Amino acid sequence: MSEFFHMGGFGAYIWSAMGAAVFLMLLEPILLVMKRRSVLQEVKRGKRLEERRKRDLQQ
Amino acid sequence: MNFYSLAGKMIPFFWMAAIALIAIGLYWGFFKTADVLNDQKQYYRIIYVHVASAWMAMWLYAVMVFWAMVGLIFNTRLSYMMASATAITGTIMTLIALITGAIWGKTSWGTWWDWDPKLTTFLILLFVYIGYIALQSAIDDTRRSDKASALLALVGLALVPVIYYAVNCPDPNQCASLHQESSLKRVESNILIGMLVTTLGFWMYSFATILMRVRNIILERERKTSWVSKLKETS
Known about the structure:
The complex is a heterodimer. Chain A is mostly helical. Chain A is built from 2 helices and no strands. Chain B is mostly helical. Chain B is built from 8 helices and no strands. Chain B has helices at about 5-30, 45-75, 75-110, 115-140, 140-155, 160-165, 190-220, 225-230. In chain B, helix 2 crosses helix 5 (about 140-155), helix 3 (about 75-110) runs antiparallel to helix 4 and helix 3 packs across helix 5. Classes of the chains: A mainly alpha, B mainly alpha. The interface between A and B is medium-sized, with 28 and 37 residues.
């Protein structure tokens, strides 16, 4: 097993290349989910404001 | 069903396909192949992520230009949103190709970077992607920013044949190049399988992230419409 990770002495290169790809390809969806949450929050806030405005107009 | 909810239903399937294909591709590439290959030792295995991301970087640029063109011709808002959703995933793919390429270059050529035609044109591709994103976010009016950045994407299309000829140089005497030709015929079949399956996995990943991003963009731009306020997730 350790021989596999050693990769004939090139382990550091191979695994850092893989690691960079994995890091970026995990970071992207995480940022997308965070963005979705903040956009949804924004939409909900806008809705609440709109409802309050309507209520105020009726009174 | 509108595009927004259809995309939402498709995203989990693209994620599953991406994870499965990348796992199979890398398994095949690491366990079914020889350790040493002509003059390349184990480090040639960087090829799986390098080629997959480089192909996707170029392909996604073509996809982005396609959506930008559809937007310019038919003036459809969704195609502009698709174009800008594609740009960031394309940037990520270009970055991965450049980083893994540098690491592979260090082991294979003894240098992280060289101003060889292939590497240089790819760096310019990264700058064009970044320029597109920057231009779009610099203009507040979305209709104008969509149009301006779509034009920039079209101009950048001139890069694609340059990149192509930088790798598949017609006359080797005219282009000094460290980067090898990308001739699929010379690649050993097990490596080719690993490469192609990983690429397919990266493609599915791109579908998943682009759809996630376009959904965010739709929500952001249409947040004042009644269909968005009727959505389950906004109640």
